Amino acid sequence: MDANRLKSLPLFESVSDEDLERIAPFVSEVSVSEGKHLVDEGDYAYNLMAIEEGTAEVRRGDESVAQLGPGDFFGEVGLLDTEKRTATVVATAPMRLVTLDRWDMRRLEKTAPAAIQRIRTAAVERQPGA
Questions:
Q1: Domains, the chain
Q2: How far is CA 120 from CA 26, 33, 74, 90, 94, in A?
Q3: What is the pTM of this model?
Q4: Phi and psi at residue 4, in whole multiples of 5°?
Q5: What is the per-residue DSSP string for 44-72?
Q6: Rounded to whole angstroms, what are the CA distances from 67 to 73, 91, 110, 112?
Q7: pLDDT for the residue numbered 108
Q8: Which residues contact 117 (CB under 8 A, 6 or more apart)?
Q9: Which residue, 1, 4, 14, 5, is CA-closest to 116?
Q10: Mean pLDDT (the chain, rounded)
């Protein structure tokens, strides 16, 4: 993954170029088609996904609770703790995502601590009651 592409995502825009260079090899790129379930409510969460292109719908039960697009991210609970997914996310258009799993994030805490703290902070800020 190219560090400049990471910098274009709001989650990573305040991360230093040096730290982005350290993170980039651990980030994966995934392309999915419309209708793909990206995560399912109740499953265990292990990775963070940021949307580079495309759109998705967030559902809790049968209710649509949010629409996501480029720059949005989800799955941050999986980076904080071993938690179950709180919602289902389904692609509503073809998508390109970047992903970072919890194990790689833990490895990066030693080489890019400021960047990982930024991701953790963003995740905590999105938790209910934060």
A1: 3-125 (2.60.120.10)
A2: 16, 29, 12, 24, 28
A3: 0.86
A4: -65, -35
A5: B--EEEEEEES-EEEEETTEEEEEE-TT-
A6: 11, 10, 35, 31
A7: 85
A8: none
A9: 14
A10: 87
